[in-house]
Amino acid sequence: xxxxxxxxxxxxxxxxxxxxxxxxxxxxxxxxxxxxxxxxxxxxxxxxxxxxxxxxxxxxxxxxxxxxxxxxxxxxxxxxxxxxxxxxxxxxxxxxxxxxxxxxxxxxxxxxxxxxxxxxxxxxxxxxxxxxxxxxxxxxxxxxxxxxx
Amino acid sequence: xxxxxxxxxxxxxxxxxxxxxxxxxxxxxxxxxxxxxxxxxxxxxxxxxxxxxxxxxxxxxxxxxxxxxxxxxxxxxxxxxxxxxxxxxxxxxxxxxxxxxxxxxxxxxxxxxxxxxxxxxxxxxxxxxxxxxxxxxxxxxxxxxxxxxxxxxxxxxxxxxxxxxxxxxxxxxxxxxxxxxxxxxxxxxxxxxxxxxxxxxxxxxxxxxxxxxxxxxxxxxxxxxxxxxxxxxxxxxxxxxxxxxxxxxxxx
Lengths: 149, 252
Hints:
Chain B: InterPro entries: GvpL/GvpF. The complex is a heterodimer. In chain A, 62% of the residues lie in helices and 1% in strands. Chain A is mainly alpha-helical. Chain A is elongated, with a radius of gyration of 21 Å. By secondary structure, chain B is of the alpha+beta class. In chain B, 39% of the residues lie in helices and 23% in strands. In chain B, strands 1, 2, 3, 4 and 5 form a 5-stranded antiparallel beta sheet that branches. Chain B is elongated. The chains are: A mainly alpha, B alpha+beta.
């Protein structure tokens, strides 16, 4: 299977068209249609399935946001973290970012499962390769530092 | 490979060869070939018997179009387009030849860049601090914890994140529009506040990207901007075939 490195050296932009998830709706919903030709009927059924799963996933996302909010409260109540400190990053941002990202990914995973559940070997390739923050193994330590500050 | 018609990838100028080494949809991958009707042609392969929107088939469609676009202008077909047979395809190509050629000329030397605006990943604390409605629901959720209040709070957060992303994203789009030949608003995508494609001259791609990245960086507390491209011009086939299509193409 080829990778998704597109048009190297031909097109002036560095190829970042990489992820299928990012362009899925263009492939499925854009592009030319010729009325007299069939669009494979099963494709339509697949799309409906994806939509249904996304509805389920969004309630899941809401619940994750709510949980992340409550976590913010705990951080504030548990010590000396003030609202200005929350705003300036550190504790709150590391919690918030992790939670938001997790919630967002759960939706993406759902779509990928619906579209390509039978392509396990290629699954890795479908993951959105967006800019990810480096892992934060020291979030505990930074939390302590902030509390002491 | 049971013959159930011809899977059509794209309409191109006559004489365009299929991209070398690119496999088509199906398992095993179909072998792409050119069906020519004078000045226009279509890139096709035998349609697989049971085609679905599988990941590898979507990728094959996309990859083939990417490769094809390296050689000249391309009218990408929507995924899953199947012509009943070569005769029907030839008739169609001949019938719409003038239209196809006009759009191919318009797209020549251009690429599509897709821009999506998503809620900024690390802005939850800002939202709680700045959005009164969220704060109110959060207080309520603390007084009466439970599923209902949690869903309401989370929904308010999601909607605030999305609105902030849309506002900041629209600023980015406004700045980018003058750099593009045309702008097309894409279909709604779950999780994205905005989804817009730009038709960008091939040789202006780098400038477009660096400008876009600068604009996105300045607003990263409100919005995460994701770019995909250069892509085949999916969103700019306009009325090449079906005049009634809701391809909101503006500019020019």
